[in-house]
Amino acid sequence: MGICNQRTVVITGAGGGLGRAYALAFAQEGANVVINDIRAEAAQAVADEVKAAGGQAIANTGDITTVAGVQSILDATLAAFGDVQVIVNNAGVLRDRMFLSLSEEDWDMVMRVHLRGHFCMAKVFGGYWRDQKKAGKEVDARIINTSSGAGLQGSIGQSNYAAAKAGIAGLTLVQAAELARYGITANCLAPAARTSMTEGAMPDMVKKPESGFDVWDPMNVASIVVWLGSSQSRHVTGRCFEAKGGELSVADGWFTGKINDKQARWEPSELSGVVDQLIAEGKAPQKVYGT
To answer: Which NCBIfam families match (predicted)?
Structure first.
């Protein structure tokens, strides 16, 4: 008996990397898993891996960037397992360029997969859960979104990706506020792990060590995702978790710093020293990571 026993989870981009780790970890905790990926062979390979370990899984190649495509994912999930409680929006793509070199196609592709994909998944599955709640059924559902350190702090050469990921963090806050009445929580994650994207961007940093704790193993991140998908997390919503190796923290995001109130309109010529002081005194505190 695991903490996700009898729960069904849909994971996008689950044919490798973090998505695969999430699928394996959810299955280990008793969940039925839907492996969604546009790469049919990769999705089936992970589904077979889950089943070989004694879990329940199906592969799925539905398009997460259209409502019709996501509806087909929901339909396949219900046909296989009868119900669904969790979606993990994990699928992503990179089109890294310096901002002034970025094309419209680079921008639109990243926005479509990340931000539109998150929207379509939550709209369709959220609608299903809302209908259940209105029909008098108990709902204990989860939306788990994927932001990024790039979305929280910016990242040179990734303006499209950072903007999409920042948008996902903002979307999560609105979902948490609007959907709580239907028994749905919404949280997001800023993970750091070895994936095809990070191996392409920083291969030396994320390579597997010859010995000792593998900080960049995606399974390290899977623990918080599985917990968020369980019934144990029903009191947590609207949060963004940062996870890497054994480190776990909650990102507070933008905050209101010190307020300098003149109690009258500022003159533009007055503001140089005032702004410099506000910036100096409004810095966020250092993060404190668990040990």
So the answer is: PRK07791.1 (NF005861)
Residue 290 has pLDDT above 50, yes or no: no
Compute φ and ψ for 103, nearest 5 degrees. -95, 165
Residue 47 and residue 57: Cα distance in Å, rounded? 5
- What is the C-alpha to C-alpha distance for residues 43 and 9, in angstroms, rounded to an integer? 14
Whether the Cβ atoms of residue 129 and residue 58 lie closer than 8 Å to each other? no
Q: Which residues are catalytic, by number?
A: 148, 161, 165
Q: Is the domain defined by 8-251 classed in CATH 3.90.190.20?
A: no
Per-residue tokens: 178: 């609007």
> Is the pLDDT confidence value at 238 over 80?
yes
Vertex 142 angle, CA 140 and 148, to 5°: 165
Where along the chain do its domains lie? 8-251
